[in-house]
């Protein structure tokens, strides 16, 4: 029996708490800061996920034996490094291994060194503006401009022409729109193809692949509108053979990345996320994340037939059996219900109804930006409010169940995309 602490407060963390609760191993599950949903299945503690000193005290005071990092902020803050000092198992990479997400230039160098297929690129700061523009010109204007550091999914501009690329460069380098995160910029070749995400449990050496998943990053149907953290996801992907993709992604991407980080003396322990573009010339890595995706976690975790706490513990201590994660059959579709205005500013505090509607047996309602008010109501507290997940024998059935359940849940200004999991 162990005591588990999940860090973060989104629907991804609610799904992680739920998954921990499916295991017989935890004697207690805590979540910091958690949300209105995690509070029903775990003990919420009012600490930020990146409050290193506060978390370290909590770990000692409550004799926590496994810390699970949800968001990138917890990775970048160095929670895993502190856990290592305290001798406590941590599922999630050290700050240095986490640079695979927190610096896109670092990730590109690592990929080139390890022979991992990715778009051609060039990086630099304000002094390299002319060179970077020259590279975009070489690409015929079809370049992608990326702030090097963490930018909450907003630091990427996919450009059609030189003028657009120039504006994106200036936003980072001159106007400092992303602060220090945009002081260095990566410019890369614009790729064409279908996007898919692969996730893997990693223990520093061995990897165990989760099912591939498709997410929907734009705010509006038909992939229009602003980039968001993610408006929905489904697994397994239609239009491709999941087993074949997993084998290729394992051999070409995940194993070489994990080996390269180990060779640098910074082994990667946790969930490694690779966003892929399937181009006519084969797969290419668009980005790595040093954590589960949100909303990818909400659809992938319910499909896992193994004990998640055991898997995460094995990653933390380096005893993960290689292979693919054993899955329940079938599919899962997750639809995000967001506040009006998301990904821009939103109003909060609206009562959410329909959450406690009959227990539906073919899915889950994972809370994101919610909180339980003193009067017992659950209210909105952020942009992405809940992820409604449907499960079924196939994507079509899972989709019907997700949207069927989502229709019961309302709050002022609720918005969602209607095309999640549509072939
Ligand atoms: P990233 O945060 O690096 O994954 O980029 C966010 C989104 O921008 C991706 O999901 C893609 O839709 C798009 N993107 C990133 N890099 C490229 C690229 N090299 N070519 C085309 N689209 C890209
Ligand atoms: N859904 C994409 C991410 O979590 O970064």
Radius of gyration (Å): 21 Å
Helix content: 25-40%
What shape does the CA trace take? globular
* Mean pLDDT across all amino acids: 95
Low-confidence stretches: none
Q: Regarding quaternary structure, how should these chains be classified?
A: single chain
Largest sheet: 5 strands, parallel
Bound molecules: adenosine monophosphate, glycine
Structural class call reads alpha+beta
Arrangement of strands in the largest sheet = 3-2-1-4-5
Walk me through the structure.
The chain is of the alpha+beta class and 423 residues long. 30% of the residues lie in helices and 27% in strands. The chain is built from 13 helices and 23 strands. It has a five-stranded parallel beta sheet with strand order 3-2-1-4-5, sandwiched between helices. It has a five-stranded mixed beta sheet with strand order 17-16-10-11-18, sandwiched between helices. Strand 2, helix 2 and strand 3 (43-44) form a beta-alpha-beta unit. Helix 8 (129-138) packs antiparallel against helix 9. Residues 119, 144, 146, 156, 158, 188, 190-191, 195, 217, 275, 286-287 line the site of adenosine monophosphate (AMP).
């Amino acid at each position: 029996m162990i005591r588990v602490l999940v860090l973060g407060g989104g629907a991804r963390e609610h799904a992680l708490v739920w998954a921990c609760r499916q295991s017989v191993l935890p004697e207690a599950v805590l979540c910091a800061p958690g949300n209105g949903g995690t509070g029903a299945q775990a003990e919420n503690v009012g600490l930020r996920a990146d409050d290193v000193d506060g978390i370290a005290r909590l770990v000692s005071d409550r004799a926590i034996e496994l810390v699970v990092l949800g968001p990138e902020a917890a990775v970048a803050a160095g929670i895993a490094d502190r856990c290592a000092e305290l001798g406590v198992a941590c599922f999630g990479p050290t700050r240095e291994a986490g640079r695979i997400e927190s610096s896109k230039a670092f990730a590109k160098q690592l990929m080139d060194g390890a022979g991992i297929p990715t778009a051609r690129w060039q990086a630099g700061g304000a002094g390299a503006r002319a060179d970077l523009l020259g590279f975009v010109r070489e690409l015929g204007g079809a370049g992608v401009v990326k702030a090097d550091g963490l930018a909450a999914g907003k630091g990427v501009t996919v450009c059609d022409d030189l003028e657009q690329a120039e504006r994106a460069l200036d936003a980072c380098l001159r106007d400092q729109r992303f602060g220090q995160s945009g002081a260095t910029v990566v410019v890369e070749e614009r790729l064409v193809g279908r996007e898919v995400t692969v996730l893997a449990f990693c223990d520093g050496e061995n990897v165990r692949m989760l099912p591939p998943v498709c997410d929907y990053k734009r705010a509006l149907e038909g992939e229009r509108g602003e980039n968001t953290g993610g408006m929905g996801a489904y697994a397994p992907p239609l239009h491709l053979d999941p087993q074949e993709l997993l084998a290729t992604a394992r051999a070409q991407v995940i194993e070489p990345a994990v080996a390269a980080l180990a060779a640098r003396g910074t082994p990667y322990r946790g969930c490694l996320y690779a966003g892929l573009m399937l181009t006519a010339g084969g797969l290419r890595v668009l980005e790595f994340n040093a954590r589960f995706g949100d909303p990818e976690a909400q659809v992938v975790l319910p499909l896992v037939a193994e004990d998640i706490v055991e898997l995460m513990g094995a990653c933390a201590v380096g005893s993960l059996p290689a292979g693919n994660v054993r899955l329940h059959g079938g599919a899962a579709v997750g639809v995000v219900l967001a506040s009006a205005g998301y990904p821009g500013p939103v109003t909060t505090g609206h009562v959410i109804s329909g959450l406690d509607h009959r227990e539906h047996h073919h899915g889950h309602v994972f809370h994101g930006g919610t909180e339980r008010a003193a009067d017992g109501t659950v209210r909105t507290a952020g942009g992405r409010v809940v992820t409604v997940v449907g499960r079924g024998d196939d994507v079509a059935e899972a989709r019907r169940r997700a949207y069927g359940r989502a229709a019961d849940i309302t709050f002022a200004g609720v918005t969602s995309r209607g095309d999640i999991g549509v072939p």
